[in-house]
Amino acid sequence: GAVVSQHPSWVICKSGTSVKIECRSLDFQATTMFWYRQFPKQSLMLMATSNEGSKATYEQGVEKDKFLINHASLTLSTLTVTSAHPEDSSFYICSAPKTSGRSPGELFFGEGSRLTVL
Amino acid sequence: QKEVEQNSGPLSVPEGAIASLNCTYSDRGSQSFFWYRQYSGKSPELIMSIYSNGDKEDGRFTAQLNKASQYVSLLIRDSQPSDSATYLCAVNQAGTALIFGKGTTLSVSS
After folding, report:
1. Mean pLDDT in consecutive groups of 10 residues from the start of chain A, 118 residues
2. A89: contact with B, CB 8 A cutoff
3. Do the Cβ atoms of B103 and A93 come within 8 Å?
4. Separation CA A114–CA B102 (nearest Å)
5. Which CA distances in Å does A82 have to A23, A33, A34, A45, A86?
6. Distance (Å) from the C-alpha of residue A47 to the closest C-alpha of chain B?
7. Looking at the partner chain, which of B44, B93, B101 has a beta carbon nearest the beta carbon of A109?
């Protein structure tokens, strides 16, 4: 079963509104979560690293004031797209590092959230 | 800039054939190497992980790693139409985010 749960799986909103996407780790604690964005026929691009109890680290070119990340607990990270515009329409995917077993570097991925901004 | 390069394809193979997918990476410090499969509109799912030079086999899948050449490959034997998807190569160092290639689209015809 899923070990990282992401919600909502899809959302449609009007331009100028804000949308919050939640990412939860199930049955394990995630001090770090990674947020990716994927445009059609493109690869996954890392947006930011979410750190529990501290500020997120954003990749170059990602507006931190537009994409607000809150990692309030060891099992929950949220991404809020503020004042969304059509160009923000994309597939947003969160992930968390696997912390047990013998697969260093492996990430668990959420189901993804398809955002469409009208 | 850490980069992962893949041929975008599409790679077309007949059912039952071997599909060969290739990937190169720029960061010599990379420690972990992964192949993910992604269906349209879905999140990636892990196919193979490899950490040491050489081959690693799992069922119909074989991953190959050559750190000196900074090269990773995935072979799919006895390809099935259900294998048709986009295959993403990804690398990282332990504890860091995965860097993905653009993916290779595989089409297996019956």
Report:
1. 88 97 92 94 93 92 95 93 97 89 82 96
2. no
3. no
4. 19
5. 17, 20, 19, 19, 12
6. 10
7. B44
